[in-house]
Amino acid sequence: MRFEFTASQDGLLLKTLLKQHGISKKLLAKIKFDGGRLLVNGIERNAIFKLSQNDLVSVDIPKEKATVTLKQQEMPLSIVYEDDHFLVVDKPAGVASVTGQNYPDKTMSNFIAGYLKAQRYENQKVHVVTRLDKDTSGLMLFAKHGYAHNRMDNLLQQKKITKRYFALVHTSNDLQTSHEIKVPIGRKDGSIIERAVVAADHPTAKYAHTSYQIIKTDEQFSLVDIQLHTGRTHQIRVHFAHLSAPLLGDDLYGGFRDKIKRQALHCHTLSFQHPFSGELINLAAALPEDMAQILKEEAQQDPDTDRL
Q1: DSSP per residue, 199-243
Q2: N or C: which end of the chain has fewer CB within 10 A?
Q3: In sequence order, what are the residues at sequence separation of 6 or more whose Cβ sits closer than 8 angstroms to the Cβ of residue 298?
Q4: What is the distance between the alpha carbons of residues 186 and 92, in angstroms, rounded to a whole number?
């Protein structure tokens, strides 16, 4: 895959220009050693070549082979967006994002690997940009090559990717119509899995910021629209448990499972400015059936349109 840039000044090192365009040292090494090329006005050059203003720089990114240890498995995918650089799917609840000790296969990574193989794409390596908990549904973003992954990681670091979630939570007096939750999260003492709101001086404390707005509510449940500003483990689940409003189905943090058998959390919106085209990408995924059914049942019991 080829990308082209124009030098804006005399004397700029080629590697400096590439860094300005989000090509990391690691990717530059792959270009050098794995079959890529750096061209200036059609002539192959090395990374310390001095550019002149208006020089045309062409970068050939090498093909990426499939990861040998990642099984390529097939599952019907709900594809929300795809181009040469990115793939966004609506992940179902109950499927882990990536492989690990507890999930050696049948994860989204496996299924994306299977999709790349079936499509016979030039690049076969899976690049996970945004993850979701196993029991969280919704939009999940993948890059289709390493350079695209680098560019999206930069956007994540700059907080220029917007992710919004719908959650069904137990109604609590501590919930406000809209609010900013800014309390640190760390490991719960005595647990390697659970997180908790902790004091700022706790050894595992990390700043966490969640904003939300109540969309519908009744005495039992509230539908909230949530935006994450940081990405801590279990952040939404911990912050709402802290407000005595745990997610429905989230028994790890105090939610009841009588209405739903998983945490009622769904990533419904993903927005970012495309790093290659400049286009503003706004993607949406409808509520899954299990969460929609709860709202439907509650609406039938309470005809008040301002409530569930």
Answers
A1: -TTSTT-B--EEEEEEEEE-SSEEEEEEEESS--TTHHHHHHHHT
A2: N
A3: 218, 220, 221, 308
A4: 28
Mean pLDDT per block of 10 residues along the chain (308 residues) reads 94 95 92 93 96 96 95 97 98 96 95 98 96 96 96 93 97 96 95 94 96 95 96 95 97 94 97 96 97 88 57
Q: Would you call 133 a catalytic residue per the annotation?
A: yes
Instruction: Scan for tokens 């890529």, then name that residue.
Output: 36
Among residues 55, 133, 135, 290, which one is catalytic? 133
Nearest to 95 by CA among 83, 87, 103: 103
Distance CA 127, CA 156 (A): 14
pTM of the model: 0.91
Assign residue 11 a region: left if phi > 0, alpha if psi is -120 to 50, beta otherwise?
A: left
Residues 199 and 195: their CA atoms lie apart, in Å, by 12
Nearest to 44 by CA among 28, 33, 60: 60
Helix pair 146-157, 25-33: axis angle to 10 deg: 170
**For 166-200, b where at least 16 C-beta lie within 10 A, e where not — what string?**
bbbbbbeeebeeeeebebbbbbbeeeeebbbbbee
What separation, in Å, do the N-terminal and C-terminal C-alpha atoms of the chain show?
Answer: 50
Distance, CA of 279 to CA of 286 (rounded, Å)? 23
Coil, strand or helix at 251: helix
d(CA 212, CA 214): 7
Contact 94, 75 (CB under 8 A): no
Give Cα separations from 81 to 90, 93, 140, 275 (angstroms).
10, 19, 10, 15
Cα of 277 vs its chain's centroid, Å: 20
